[in-house]
Design a protein that fits this description.
eight-stranded parallel sheet, 7 helices
Length: 249
């Protein structure tokens, strides 16, 4: 059976963030993935000024299914950093926005150890209590595999475990359903998308650049990256024009 397709008749952007923190020193790999707290606050204010409602993946579903219309934007944060709770959650709460944070289930309370070989500095990840605080504050948790793996490098059974057991891990500690998944590194194949459906997730997001348009697969949703130097004008281009859509591979 083919995966369900989106039915929104107008493009819907899903923003991608990682760390909401000051950038490490110049020369540090991937420092662009750190958006400062001040910049994040200004970006959320800009969304509100433009009339957008920031939504988690669950709250975004009726819009992607074409059941509701409105000026909405999905907000996602990858990896589960503690600085998301410290710096992003209060701002999101201030504007009445919800978001989805994709969490690596076996590294709760630890650090981003998967980045060590690439030279990215260690940064704390939310522990169980902090993850529950994130949810209690109106935000959502999604799954990002158990160990932040390269799915394409795993045999099928191991990939299936990483996808399915991450959901179970998180549901056990949160006491609620985890419906949304994100492919680490944006790496996946058709078989992995099938595993997402098999595990019971409703959506999976990628690093494919574009706004979501009609007939996108719910297991291969594109997103719009927001980096350290994304200006408000650039953010407007990403949200309101075909700027990101033209980058779809």
């Amino acid at each position: 059976m083919s995966p369900l397709k989106t039915r929104n008749t107008y493009p819907i952007p899903i923003l991608t963030y990682h760390q909401i923190a000051e950038a490490p020193p110049k020369g540090t790999p991937h420092r662009s993935l750190c958006v400062s707290p001040a910049t994040f606050r200004k970006q959320m204010a800009f969304l509100a000024l433009m009339g957008y409602q920031g939504l988690s993946m669950t709250a975004l579903q009726p819009y992607l299914r074409g059941e509701r219309t409105g000026k909405v934007v999905g907000i996602t944060l990858d990896d589960g950093y503690l600085n998301n709770l410290v710096h992003a959650a209060p701002v999101l709460r201030h504007y009445g926005y919800s978001s989805t944070c994709y969490v690596v289930s076996q590294f709760l309370g630890k650090t981003n150890v998967w980045d060590q070989e690439s030279g990215i500095p260690e940064s704390a990840l939310m522990d169980v209590a902090q993850l529950r605080e994130w949810v209690a504050g109106g935000q959502e948790v999604g799954a990002h595999t158990r160990h932040h793996v390269h799915l394409r490098q795993l045999v099928a059974n191991k990939a299936r475990e990483e996808i399915a057991l991450c959901k179970k891990d998180l549901e056990n500690v949160l006491g609620g359903v985890v419906d949304h998944f994100c492919y680490p590194y944006g790496e996946y194949e058709a078989g992995h998308a099938a595993m997402v459906v098999e595990a019971g997730y409703l959506t999976a997001t990628t690093t494919q650049r574009s706004r979501c348009v009609e007939a996108d697969s719910f297991t291969e949703l594109p997103r719009v990256p927001v980096a350290r130097r994304t200006t408000r004008f650039a953010l407007w281009l990403k949200l309101a024009t075909e700027y990101e859509d033209r980058r779809r591979r």
